[in-house]
Amino acid sequence: MATRTKSSRGPVKVSSRAETKSAPRTHNGTAAERGPFEERGFHTKNSLPADVRREACVLLNQRLSDCVDLETQCKQAHWNVKGPNFIGLHELFDQIHEAVDGYADLIAERIVQLGGVAEGTARIAAARSTLLDYPLRIVTGDLHVAALSDALAEFGRVARIGIDEMDDLHDADSADVLTEISRGIDKWLWFVEAHQQGAPAEDGDGA
Q1: What is the mean pLDDT of residues 10-36?
Q2: Single pTM value for the model
């Protein structure tokens, strides 16, 4: 079926829906669509050197992708866990998700404070995350505990790498943000791992 479109410079033009559907999509193709942000970032009176702020934003956006991915993994566990410990784990996983959502806010807002753009969409996170994929077919509490503890431990590890990176850039405030996050992640890892820890680890195991 054809549709009628009006041109401001000429007569009515008839075009097909097939043509309309197949029209190529453009993504931020012009400066006007992109807005005022440029490679150097938005103007800010923040006293950190511009090159430090740019590099910090790049590194923080990587951690943001990991954090957004971790959020979805917490929800996957929350929705799908089953078994005798269902209610306790169901509620714990939701508490962790809420905390991780707050960590994502901390990272994103720090990026914006530095004059950057927080790149936190699901598609960006999927493309950039360094976390392992969460297994979609697991059901029992012990398997979700194992999977989510792996994700928390890995995010804690990369958060500590981020602290070192910010220290190298002499960005103490970004390092402090990641330190706060890593402390929180370690607490939640403890809460989850406690469901697996029946006895002290042997030498060479665990720690």
Answers
A1: 43
A2: 0.78
